[in-house]
Design brief:
Blueprint (H helix, E strand, L loop, with lengths): L1 E4 L2 E5 L1 H9 L11 E9 L2 E7 L7 E3 L2 E3 L4 H12 L5 E8 L9 H13 L5 E6 L4 E7 L2 E4 L1 E2 L2
Parallel strand pairs: 2-4, 7-8
Antiparallel strand pairs: 1-2, 1-11, 3-4, 3-7, 5-6, 8-9, 9-10
Length: about 150
């Protein structure tokens, strides 16, 4: 899956799309799910190669997901070391129990905080819905919605 906005491309590996979709299906759709996105910055673009999925200490509710489990950070560090520091934390994802998701006020506020902590690089924010994905490009505390192109 590929998203485009303002000269930036975000490429989600098929395995990442499949993992997120797994949590939008009938068996999982009653609770939001989420995790972090791991990938590479390639000039003005981001290639997302892997994502973490809900872990035991995370909090999942009908209308929210809170990432609490340290396993997400551990996985990011493992991948970063194995990749010789080329695969990094590039953003986060979660699901919404709706066909075509869009960020809530809570999402936007949370993402603004994330952008404030990661000032050097843009971040990618993905929301998986039952029929489509939302993808946002976050940079300098500004969020730009991206269009799916493939």
């Amino acid at each position: 899956m590929i998203f485009l906005a303002g000269g930036h491309l975000v490429i989600l590996a098929e395995q990442v799309v499949a993992e997120i979709r797994r949590f939008t299906g009938p068996d999982e759709a009653n609770l939001e799910a989420g995790g972090i996105l791991l990938g590479c910055y390639r000039g003005p673009h981001v290639e997302i190669l892997e994502c973490t999925t809900p872990m035991p200490l995370d909090r999942r509710t009908r209308n929210g997901f809170v990432r609490r489990d340290p396993g997400h950070q551990r996985r990011a560090l493992e991948v970063w070391k194995v990749s010789d520091r080329t695969v990094n934390f590039v953003g986060e994802w979660h699901t919404h129990p709706e066909e075509r998701p869009s960020p809530s006020r809570v999402d936007r506020d949370t993402w603004a905080d994330q952008m404030g902590r990661h000032r050097d690089d843009a971040l990618v924010f993905v929301i998986g819905g039952r029929a489509s994905f939302y993808c946002g490009w976050g940079e300098n505390r500004r969020l730009v919605a991206m269009a799916a192109v493939a």
